[in-house]
Design brief:
It is built from six helices and 18 strands. With 344 residues, it is α+β, with helices and mostly antiparallel strands. Strands 1, 2, 3, 4, 5, 6, 7, 8 and 18 form a nine-stranded antiparallel β-sheet that branches. Strands 9, 10, 11, 12, 13, 14, 15, 16 and 17 form a nine-stranded mixed β-sheet that branches. It is globular, with a radius of gyration of 20 Å. Bound molecules: pyridoxal-5'-phosphate. Pyridoxal-5'-phosphate (PLP) binds next to helix 5.
Length: 344
C-alpha cells in the first residue's frame, strides 16, 4: 500500500471493503464484504430524521511480533448493545460484532499500518435504522456495518503533545436524565456547535459540566476526563458521562501500578489541585491537557480563570507511564495480563 504511515492523521480514506449485515424479521443476515461504500436507503429511513443511530470506535494494531491485535472488542460489543437497546433497536450479538470486526481487518489488511509508526486501523461499527417511516418510531430494520481506516494521531499532532481546553458553562452535551451515557449519533449533533466554537478559539478540547448543576466535571466532547493528584487517579462518576473503555483500562493499569482510583463527583474548583489532567479515548489513548480556561459563556472573549497543569511542553510523568503500559499491551511489547487483546 502506497501510504505515508507516519502522516496518517485521523481522516476518511477509502479502503478495500466495508462489512455489512442487515436485521429484518428478527434475523441478522450473514455478513458480507462490500466494495461499494455508498449506502442506498429510503429517504424516509429513521436515521435521517430522528437520529436512529449509534456507533462504536475501536482499534486493530500490528504488533512488534507481527501479530494483529484488537483491543477489548468485547467491551465495544456490549456498549453497542446498550446503545441499541436505548434506541429500542436490534443490535448484533457479541459473536457477530467480533466476527465482522475481524472480517473488516482481514479485508483491509494492506491498510493496517506496520508496527513502529504509532499508527493503527480504526474500526467504526455503526448501527443504523433504515426502514421507511414517517411517524416517530424506533427502527424495525437495522443495518450494522463495520468500517475501517488507517489512522495516526487524532490531530496530526505529535503523540502526547499537550493541548489546551475550555470549560463549557453555557452548552451541555447531554441532558440530566438524557442519553450522555450511550454512544448515540444524536449526542454529537448536540455538541458540534460548541465544539466548533472552542476550536475556532484555538482550544483542542471542550470540557462539559454536569448538566443538572454545572458545578461538577463531566467529560470532554469525545473523551473522558482523568486527573492525577499524588498517588490518586481521579475520574468523574456521573450518569451523563459515556463509559470510556480507555478510561476503564487506564484505571486497571493505575491499580496495577499501586495507585488509588477515585471514581466520584469532581467539583470544578478541584481543578486547582490537580497535577496532571488528560482527555482519554480510543483515538489517542490520552491527550495531556496543560491548561483549562473558564469563562462565563463560550462566546465571551474574557477568560475569568485559567487552571494550569504541569509543564505545557510535555506530558506528565504519571500519565506517560499509564499511556506506555496501554500502548505496550496493544503493540504486544508488554504482557497482556488482563487478556484484553483478541488476535486476528
Ligand atoms: C467514544 C467516547 C469516549 C471514549 O470512549 P472509548 O471507549 O475510550 O473510546 C468518550 N466520550 C464520549 C462522549 C464518547 O463518545
Amino acid at each position: 500500500m502506497d501510504l505515508n504511515w507516519s502522516d496518517l492523521a485521523f481522516k476518511y480514506r477509502k479502503t478495500n471493503a466495508i462489512i455489512i449485515s442487515r436485521y429484518k424479521d428478527g434475523q441478522w443476515s450473514a455478513p458480507v464484504a462490500s466494495k461499494d461504500f455508498d449506502f442506498h436507503f429510503n429517504a424516509f429511513a429513521g436515521v435521517f430524521h430522528y437520529a436512529n443511530s449509534c456507533f462504536e470506535g475501536l482499534k486493530a494494531f500490528r504488533g512488534a511480533d507481527g501479530k494483529v491485535r484488537l483491543f477489548r472488542p468485547d467491551e465495544n460489543a456490549k456498549r453497542l448493545q446498550r446503545s441499541g437497546a436505548h434506541l429500542d433497536m436490534a443490535a448484533p450479538s457479541e459473536e457477530l460484532f467480533l466476527e465482522m470486526c475481524l472480517m473488516c481487518v482481514k479485508e483491509n489488511i494492506d491498510f493496517l499500518p506496520p508496527y513502529g509508526y504509532n499508527a493503527s486501523m480504526y474500526l467504526r461499527p455503526v448501527l443504523i435504522g433504515c426502514n421507511p417511516q414517517l411517524g416517530i418510531a424506533s427502527s424495525e430494520e437495522v443495518l450494522f456495518a463495520v468500517l475501517g481506516a488507517p489512522v495516526g494521531t487524532y490531530s496530526g499532532a505529535k503523540s502526547l503533545s499537550p493541548g489546551t481546553a475550555v470549560l463549557s458553562r453555557n452548552f451541555d452535551r447531554a441532558a440530566p436524565n438524557g442519553t450522555g451515557c450511550y454512544k448515540l449519533a444524536a449526542n454529537y449533533a448536540t455538541s458540534l456547535h460548541p465544539y466548533n466554537m472552542a476550536h475556532k478559539q484555538g482550544y483542542r478540547e471542550l470540557l462539559f459540566l454536569d448538566p443538572a448543576t454545572h458545578t461538577k466535571i463531566d467529560e470532554f466532547g469525545s473523551s473522558n476526563f482523568l486527573a492525577i493528584r499524588g498517588n490518586s487517579y481521579i475520574t468523574p462518576l456521573s450518569p451523563s458521562v459515556l463509559p470510556s473503555i480507555t478510561n476503564k483500562s487506564l484505571q486497571t493499569v493505575a491499580e496495577d501500578f499501586g495507585m488509588k482510583v477515585e471514581k466520584r463527583a469532581v467539583l470544578v474548583e478541584e481543578l486547582a489541585e490537580f497535577e496532571e489532567v488528560n482527555a482519554c479515548g480510543t483515538a489517542v489513548v490520552i491527550t495531556p491537557i496543560c491548561s483549562i480556561d473558564d469563562k462565563a459563556a463560550l462566546e465571551d472573549t474574557v477568560v475569568t480563570k485559567t487552571y494550569r497543569f504541569g509543564d505545557p511542553t510535555r506530558c506528565g510523568a504519571v500519565s506517560e507511564k499509564l499511556y506506555n503500559r496501554i500502548r505496550g499491551i496493544q503493540d504486544g511489547t508488554e504482557e497482556d495480563i488482563h487478556n484484553w487483546c483478541v488476535l486476528l
